[in-house]
């Protein structure tokens, strides 16, 4: 798949997440919370179909597995 940005995408840091769903959609709220604070700022809201949510899960799972293999290799001194 080739992804072309219409304009430069805005990057937002998120360290807290809330997920809700109904029969037709998943809503993922990405928030930023500072240490010691009880409040979090909503920085992004994704609304996905269940099919798109499954695709996101698969891509995220694959990326996390690759990351863990890389970290494991680095810790063992491998290249």
Outline the secondary-structure elements.
Layout: E1 16-21, E2 26-32, E3 41-48, H1 50-75
Antiparallel strand pairs: 1-2, 2-3
Compose a concise summary of this entry.
The chain is α+β, with helices and mostly antiparallel strands. Helix content is 33%, strand content 27%. Strands 1-2-3 form a 3-stranded antiparallel sheet.
Ends distance: 29 Å
The stretches of 5 or more residues where confidence is low (pLDDT under 50) are: none
Overall outline: extended
Mean pLDDT: 93
Q: Note the beta-strand portion.
A: 25-35%
Largest pleated sheet:
3 strands, antiparallel
- Sketch the topology as an H/E string, one letter per element: EEEH
Structural class: alpha+beta
- Number of individual domains: 1
InterPro entries: DUF3467 (IPR021857)
Question: What would you say this structure looks like, in words?
Answer:
The chain is an alpha+beta fold and 79 residues long. It has one domain. It is built from 1 helix and 3 strands; from the N terminus they run E-E-E-H. The chain has a 3-stranded antiparallel sheet. The longest helix has 26 residues, at 50-75. It is extended and about 45 Å long. The two termini are 29 Å apart. InterPro entries: DUF3467.
